[in-house]
Amino acid sequence: MISHSRPRLRGFTLIELLVVIAIIAILAAILFPVFAQAKAAAKKTQCVSNVKQVSLANMMYAGDYDDALCQFGGYNTDLPDGGYIHVDWAQQSRYGSDYNLVKEDPGQGLLQPYMKNTAIIDCPDATGLPKTLQSGGTTYSLPYAYGVNSFIYLSSVNNSQVQAPSETLLMADAASQFLSGKLIRSNRVVAGDWNCGPFTGYVQGRHGGKTSVAWIDGHAKVQNLYLPTDAQCDADSAGYMKRNALGWVTKYGKENPGSSVATDRDNYYYNIDKKGVN
Predict the structure, then answer these.
(1) Residue 50: phi, psi to the nearest 5?
(2) Of 11, 28, 60, 225, which residue is most buried, by most CB within 10 angstroms?
(3) Which residues contact 114 (CB under 8 A, 6 or more apart)?
(4) Which residue segment(s) compose the domain that 220 sits in?
(5) With a threshold of 0.85, does the pTM exceed it?
(6) pLDDT tens across the length of the chain (278 residues)
(7) Is 89 in contact with 121 (CB distance < 8 Å)?
(8) Which residues sit opposite 252 in a β-bridge?
(9) Does residue 93 form part of some domain?
(10) Range list of H helices, 65-185
């Protein structure tokens, strides 16, 4: 009688398992940073696309309204219940007489006929910044991850007034310091003096220390950020801004790095009238 014995199956030894685990760990250590970099690059690309679309929407608006840029928003306070309505580029927000947010209507923004998609007002790297703010028992809407140049924020500006549209900031990644050092969204970026104070909209370097900027001529790009020096501000304020990548975009750098006073040369990218600076 022929005996058929089953072959013995050989398992992995402990050494072999440890070698496999070590190889997997090495591959993970190599590939995970690559994946993270690819993800960050995709978010940056999406952010630049967002601000470019908003800038192009503003250009289309100007084409329909005698070359006038769309100011960021306005208020209707003539409501019977004592509340008010704030309308901006992307939406309309209804507030009660107690100043609490009642309703948001993304379909009623000033640029909505040209933007179509309100998702483009948000940066994919701004997930840590809440879209509402609770303060003193009141709720405010903060949907924008981008801040509009304060010189056109609530001003009527015609394209013919802008001396260098390709070098005049329309909007950029933005944030602001609130009470107790809380970092919040800001719907404007403020030029003027560079004093590092709270409650002021600053450009934020969310993308590896760089910021997405849309310009009045419709183009958009990633821009380097100028961070404050300890001599320009007090060390605590400057430190807060550096930790949160808050600063300014500037063509020439800071003319006097030790002073919070900003010159027209410092604010070149913000100024509508370049005032002879070139």
Answers:
(1) -60, -50
(2) 225
(3) 56, 57, 58, 60, 61
(4) 16-71+116-247
(5) no
(6) 555 555 665 666 778 788 888 888 888 888 777 677 778 888 999 999 999 999 999 999 999 999 999 989 888 888 888 899 988 999 888 999 888 888 888 878 999 999 888 889 999 999 889 888 888 788 888 889 999 999 988 888 999 999 999 999 999 999 999 888 899 999 999 887 788 888 888 999 999 999 999 999 999 999 999 999 888 888 898 999 999 999 999 999 999 998 999 999 999 999 999 888 87
(7) yes
(8) none
(9) no
(10) 112-115
Domain count, the chain: 1
Three-class SS of 10-50: CCCCHHHHHHHHHHHHHHHHHHHHHHHHHHHHHHHHHHHHH
Residue 275 belongs to a domain: no
In the chain the first and final C-alpha atoms are separated, in Å, by 103
How many Cα atoms occupy the beta-carbon half-sphere of 59 within 13 Å? 15
Q: Which residues pair with 207 in a beta bridge?
A: 210
CA distance 51 to 161: 22
3-state SS of the chain: helix, strand, coil percent to 5? Answer: 30, 25, 50
Residue 195 near residue 260 (C-beta atoms within 8 A): yes
Q: How many CA atoms lie within 13 A of 271 on its CB side?
A: 18
- Does any domain span residue 84? no
Residue 124, domain member (yes or no): yes
